[in-house]
Amino acid sequence: ENFMYTGEDVIGEYEEMPKNATDVRPEGLCLAVYDEKKRTWSESASKEYIESLQPKPQPSEMEIMQKEIAELYYLLAVGEAS
Questions:
Q1: Span 8-42, pLDDT tens digits
Q2: d(C-alpha 80, C-alpha 78), whole Å
């Protein structure tokens, strides 16, 4: 209806392709939109939306240990000051 990608389905060898379908696959797009005249898919998602889907970087084991050591030093310093 609005040429947005909604998923894929298997069509049998002897079945007709539905009117709202295409045999052109979108590759690597977040919110794919189809251009019926050009028979191509393009990205309709904003850069911000695509970036929001990316996984947040996780701290390395070394960074976690450094933070824990810093917290221990802080606790030792506070404990000795009282």
A1: 888 888 999 888 888 899 998 889 999 999 999 99
A2: 6
